[in-house]
Amino acid sequence: MSAKRVKDELLDHDYDGIQELDNDLPPWWLYLFYFTIAWSVAYLIYFHVLGGDLQEAEYLAEMKAAEVMKKELLAEQARQGAAAALTTQLTDDESLARGKVVYTTHCLACHGAYGEGGVGPNMTDEYWIHGGTMTDVVNTILNGVPAKGMISWRPVLKPDEITEVASFILSLQGTNPPNGKAPEGEKVGG
Amino acid sequence: MAMETFSYDNKIVRNFAFATAIYGVVGMAVGLLVALQIFEPAANLGSQYTTFGRIRPLHTNAVIFAFVGNGIFMGVYYSLQRLCKARMFSDVLSKLHFWGWQLIIVSAVVTLPLGLTTSKEYAELEWPIDILITVVWVIFGINMIGTIMKRREKHMYVAIWFYLATFLTVAMLHVVNSLGLPVSLFKSYSVFAGVQDALVQWWYGHNAVAFFLTTPYLGLMYYFLPKAANRPVFSYRLSIIHFWALIFIYIWAGPHHLLYNALPDWAQSLGTVFSIMLIAPSWGGMLNGLLTLRGAWDRVRQDPILKFMVVAVTAYGMATFEGPLLSVKSINALTHFTDWTIAHVHVGGLGWNGFLTFGILYWLIPRIYQTQLYSVKLANAHFWIGTLGILGYAIPMYWAGLTQGLMWKQFTDEGFLQYPIFLETVLQIVPMYMFRAIGGGIYLIGAIVGVYNLVLTARQGTLLAEEQASAPALVADTEPDTAKNVYGHRWIESRPVQFLVATLIAVTIGGVIEFVPAFLIKSNVPTIESVQPYTALELSGRDIYIREGCNTCHSQQVRPFRSETERYGEYSKPGEFVYDHPFLWGSKRIGPDLARIGDKYPDAWHYNHMIDPRSMSPGSLMPPYPWLADQSIDLSIIGKKLSVMKTLGVPYSDEEVSSAADNTMAQAREISEGLAASGINVESDREIVALIAYLQRLGTDLKAQRVSDNKQYKPKPYVRRGY
């Protein structure tokens, strides 16, 4: 602030002993104010006259970019044969242990600690509502049964987690835990 | 010139001062209880009356209207009399004002824990209390303007400009936002719905911050800071420019609370640009405060009063810089719905309002009690404890907000959400919630120390209830004004009526320009055919949702980001909310968004979750709601509810209104039978059944629309439970 602008001259009024100085507006303050006004005008012109991306366009662009990324990833996986692996039932202890972790985190609340059922059906019996092959189970997990409260786990679980948890569920067949929920669906296999 | 003698009423100032101090402590203590519940739901002591959703609004109302409100009146009644060289216009009105305001506060303390709420933030109180507020506010206005009319000082000092703008604008905001149609003595529905209700609410909410927490306090700053520092105000010109710029621009900025929400883009853009333009006018106030202290900085080091004021004004400057930044869409995308917002308001609340209030109390109480402050040391201790408290509060909340915001948006390389389970993102920040409670607790301890100090100060002095003063009478405008007339503003400073008119114009323009198109132009809210009114049972459930304050933790607004549509489903459209009186978009996500919760889980899941959230979501921080399974739906009022909604334009048929109670029970029986099939036995007339019906409805109308739009897309064939 230059000396001229802050001259600290008292104005000749006083309110209950409070006096005021006749100083100019601090120039940097004033320029800040002008700048924000200019910025605002430019903002409105950019978005509402020149057609800058508003929220819907912004969203569509974001989704498109993600789509492209996903396609590339799928192509990559296909090259490595990962897609076929999704429905390959695993039986090694390590995979089943990993499957159990997924199960405990995400599925236990509805299907019970031992797969005996609760909000969701019993998974230790031979009865399946949506089929009991590895492919069926994987498909149910992938797509969910939204109407019955089972969400699609596609956005939540990674592909290998889905394979592992499906394998884990199938490994529960015949364990016959206490408090098992009554069978639902069709008898499969036996 | 003949001198007139008269006296200032200090007793009314004393009364407001003590109310300020008491409610400060009470309001902050409730805040602490709320803060504890966020990480330990059992801190509600198992009672519905002290559960989070009900007492969070009690906290906000107590600190805003009881603590800051009484603080405003304390400062105004003290300074206005002296700036006008006149006693308050009417002692009777002063008393009515004081006791009326305390009555409002007591009503809030009773009704909010009972769950009697409109759900609109900072305007939760139900319609009879709203009317009382209006009456008391008008009493305040008459008393203030009456005093100004009989003043012995020709010109109005800048503090008075701010007081007048406060009175006028708050009156307008309160009346418009509270417009509702009563259903019963303690239940009403907003006359606005959905997008329009949101726009009106945040025009109100934002400007309640502006004209209840800011402009009156700027007025107080302009009186008490130069008084305490004994220095002239830095720049009269700055006062003029920043005053008018501030009140004109503030009004427009409300939509920045609704960025990326289902609000027309043009309204959002106005919210953004007017927020950016607010930086300079806000900083004008800060500068005028801080630069007034030039030449007094050596005293700031010793004088706790000045210390409080300096931190207050600095916090004001920080909050008013941060606010505009949070209004930039790309920043808002990250911070909205997170604890960042909570940090932001507490820098303003604890720093600006809290510290300025304590500074004023320390200055004023010894004066009206004709004594010295009981202990300057204790006041200094309060200052440092309080400062520590602010930091201890704000830093963890910024951290929490940033962490959670980033976690919500994080995708894995495979294109999945990194943290698909919402609860994970909450549990991550639990330590921050604990630190916040400690920070808030420290601030509260400081406040208690302060109140103790003030009480002892009052004890050692005697109240000068009637302070004698004298001043020459104001003579008619014969002599020319010799004072320097900057920008010609002197003219209006001596004309309160013209001043009020100019203020009214300045604060009305923004609101009108935003509301009129939003209300009149249909394209702003495109119709969605499948969106139908709620059934009678769902409406009852919705009212329970409001009563329990579920909206304090859950939003109903999916924003158009990939991270949200992956998590929740399709983003929210304006047309979905046309029957929502009031809207329930929410402003904070402690729990996940519920806009698409319908059909996501079976009824049994909701039942178990509501009775004990941790049974379905281990570690959940949502409070249990066991009383919903004991209490019955109020069937006697349900027909009235539908008919009020019908009056408000919701297309219910007469048949639906007259058989509302029967329809409620029919749908409820269907749900309780379904629950019985899953082994849950609950009477069909229980509140929990209604709430489940409401939750299961959310978002399903839009899904139905997609089914008819696109035959390939087929989730569950949509059957609207036929009532």
Provide a descriptive summary of the structure in words.
The complex is a heterodimer of chains A (190) and B (723). By secondary structure, chain A is mostly helical. Chain A has helices at 27-48, 55-79, 82-85, 93-111, 134-143, 159-171; strands spanning 10-15, 18-21, 127-128, 186-187. In chain A, helix 4 crosses helix 6 and helix 5 (134-143) packs across helix 6 (159-171). Chain A is elongated, with a radius of gyration of 33 Å. Chain A starts with 9 loop residues before the first strand and ends with a strand. The mean pLDDT of chain A is 86. In chain B, 63% of the residues lie in helices and 3% in strands. Chain B has helices at residues 11-39, 52-84, 91-111, 127-149, 158-177, 194-229, 236-250, 265-276, 279-292, 297-302, 304-326, 329-335, 339-368, 376-409, 422-427, 430-460, 489-493, 496-520, 536-547, 562-567, 603-611, 613-616, 638-647, 654-658, 660-677, 687-697, 700-709, and strands at 3-9, 180-184, 187-190, 466-472. Chain B is globular and about 90 Å long. Chain B has a domain at 536-708: Cytochrome c-like domain (Cytochrome Bc1 Complex, Chain D, domain 2). With 723 residues, chain B is mainly alpha-helical. In chain B, strand 2 and strand 3 form a beta hairpin. In chain B, strands 1-4 form a two-stranded antiparallel ribbon. At the A-B interface, strand 1, strand 2, helix 1, helix 2 and helix 4 of A face helix 2, helix 6, helix 7, helix 8 and helix 9 of B.
